Amino acid sequence: MIKAMAAYVRIVDAVNYRIGRVMMWGLFVMMGILLWSSISKTFFLPSLWTLEMAQFAMVTYYILGGPYSVQAGESVRMDLFYHNWSPHRKAWFDAITVLLLIFYLGVLFYGGLGSTAYSLGYWGDEPVSYFVGLLTGSEEIGRLERSSTAWRPYIWPIKAIMVFGFFLMLLQAISEFFKDIARINGQEIGVSRA
């Protein structure tokens, strides 16, 4: 069982590591968009797309960079008592709290699927069956949701990115749970980056 958990951790950590490292450059994308916004407002006609595109870039940056942050241990932690605990006790506490995180992420993922389905023109209650229907050809894309701003971009791409990010975070949370289980058993699993 530990071998299967170690293989899962190795694969998920490698994927999220690579995506996270690419997302680090997203900060420069946002800076470029906002710089162009300032230049266009000062010297030319203001661009309609810059503010909303900067928001979309920011969402992509933190949603897809989040799993890497969790993997690197850079998430915020209340450390009132935790720092004095033994590694075994920390692993138990982390295993319990990550189960709560997995539940929360599952709810977010399901809600994100529903919101993405709505942005693709689906009005029903079963977003999972809708996406399965899209893959099999029994469902069709309806009227696409658009933003109410003057630029009026389609909303489904950013919602799909959010769902993908929730999925990656869910996979990373499960990876962290497996690492905690291994620590409880006196073992260490994870990706070494030398």
Helices, strands, pairings?
Blueprint: H1 2-23, H2 26-43, H3 50-71, H4 87-119, H5 127-136, H6 156-184
Characterize this entry briefly.
By secondary structure, this protein is an all-alpha fold. The chain has 6 helices and no strands. The model has no long low-confidence stretch (mean pLDDT about 90).
Report on the architecture of this protein.
There is one protein chain. With 194 residues, this protein is an all-alpha fold. The chain is built from six helices and no strands. The protein has helices at residues 2-23, 26-43, 50-71, 87-119, 127-136, 156-184. The radius of gyration is 20 Å and the shape is globular.
Core attributes:
mainly alpha, 194 residues, 0% strand
Roughly how many Å apart are the termini? 26 Å
Mean pLDDT: 91
- State the order of secondary-structure elements, H for helix, E for strand: HHHHHH
Number of helices: 6
Parts with pLDDT < 50 across at least 5 consecutive residues: none
Which outline best applies?
A: globular
What's the number of extended β-strand segments?
0
Largest sheet: none
Which structural class do you get from the secondary structure elements? mainly alpha
Radius of gyration: 20 Å
